[in-house]
Amino acid sequence: MKTKFQETLSRANEVIFRYPMILVMALLASIGTICIVETERSEITSYIKFTICTCLGISLMFALKMLSQRIGKEILLQASGIIFLIGFYFILPDKKNGFTEVYGYIIAVTALLSHLLVSFVPFLEKDRELRFWQYNKNLFINIFLTAVFTGVLTGGVELAILAVDKLFDFNFHDRIYRDTFFVLAIFGSSFIFLLFNDKGLNNLEKDGTYPVVLKFFTQFILIPLLLIYVTILYFYSVKIVINWQLPRGWVSYLVLAYSIVGILALLLVHPLKEENAKSWVRIFSKAFYYTIVPLIILLFTAIFTRILEYGYTEPRYFVLLLALWLLGTVVYFIFNKKTTIKFIPVSLFLFGAFALVFPYLNAFSVAKRSQKAELMNILNQHQLMSAGKINFQKKVTDTVRNEIASKFEFLAERKQGEFLSGLLNEKDQAELADNIKNGTFYSINYDIQNKFSDVNVTVKNRAYEMKRLVLIRKEQAVEIGNYQYLISFHRYSRDPQQLNNDQFELTDDLTEKSSLKLSLNDQEEIDFGPQIIKLFEENKNKKGNVVIPEIAMESDLGKYHVKLIFSEITREKYSEDDNASIYYENVYILIKLK
Q1: Run of H or E residues at 78
Q2: CA 76 to CA 74: how far, in whole Å?
Q3: For the residues of 360-401, what is the DSSP string, one character each?
Q4: Backbone phi, then psi, for 474, in 5-degree steps?
Q5: Which of 272-281, 443-452, 477-486, 549-558 has the lowest mean pLDDT?
């Protein structure tokens, strides 16, 4: 037992000294995640940026470690990785509401590129085909084992804490379970993964017997599923030809899914195709890329149907780029006699890097130019321009109005405020600038919709036409006055708040029962719902964003006098028969002793 313990401790020490930067990144990512959960939302942005960069640093530092084990220069490589992460930190926005979907794409693609880098960066030299496969096969197995071990470890530790808590009446705070989960899921899983990788590159790339489980999984599960999948896609292609109709947009994702899973299957069985006894592998390897050819035609037809109708957006750009990558991969493996499977991750990495950083032709530049052109095309086509500005008094259909509003929101999120302002009058320009500054891009969409005064609601959309009223407090700063305390509740987080050994709890049931109850120690309560409903009734003939002097209501509650203050509150309703959906982001409660 002592020997086993010493052996385990020795291996743990080896991992710590061999992979210090990876473990530091994992530890910092765990701490950052905990800080995000436990920090006030107004101060959360720096922690989000920090955590994103450290999570990205785990895979990046592992890739650079593998490369350093091949070529040396470890300190230089690690320094370059840290510089990249610092630069990436400053690329991210400084405000939480600045994290638009654009940054989502940047983060997701960068994370994918860092993982692709792990897969090939130690094998840039030629003539390492089998070692390249063994390396990635061992990484794949280690990731699977890490997931299993981490799941068991995390579940076991959480149950142990629960047992101690309940049996010995420790009354642990709920956050101990949450923080334990984050530490084990991020730092723990990274540590376990590095334990499996042992000494690194030399251990990962050495020859080993082909796993029987992998062969069984590929031959009897993955490939039969692919055959079923491709049969469905071919029948759908025949249906398109017979009915002579354009393919549906989502067929692009099905074709890409079939192709990517098929390529994964080929990679899994790559060493077996040279064995004579494994003829099924050779047949599948040769036939697979030919089966994709008709589907690529279907894929490009579906993609360009959407692009020609609605223009480029980042998702359509990425789908098109994947289609071009797939076409290049098929051409490479069909017409090239001396192929290497390294082509797959390397080419995908290059395509992804191109989409992110290539000037003028990257995903974001193309999407912005395309949607600007689409917006101007719609405005000119429906003759909505007057003296260089949008004429909101002209009659339009709800479909046109919604499309214009959607493109305004899209372009505003991508910092095209100057272009959009040129289409509006001075008053509307100021409103647009405020929304962009505050990051309330959804309001831009509704504001543009509400500016059109003569809208023909089509029968198709009549049931979905939403009436939206946003009441906005004129002064956003909260004046405390003679009140002694201030507490706040967020829309998504209304945990009870403690004050002088008293507990305040807010129960929001505005949508269903027109009720917003503030209770004191679960004994006394006051319902502010009727006052909120009355406020909306006073403004029932208005729509869109309406600025009013004050959104506040007050009452006695036990030994306290309380005053609720909203910065804004929204009511949405689709039809007279539906309940109105009423919500807010934050409510501030001023409290004083009576």
Answers
A1: helix 74-91
A2: 6
A3: TTSHHHHHHHHHHHHHHHHHHHTT-EETTEE-TTS-EEHHHH
A4: -60, -50
A5: 272-281
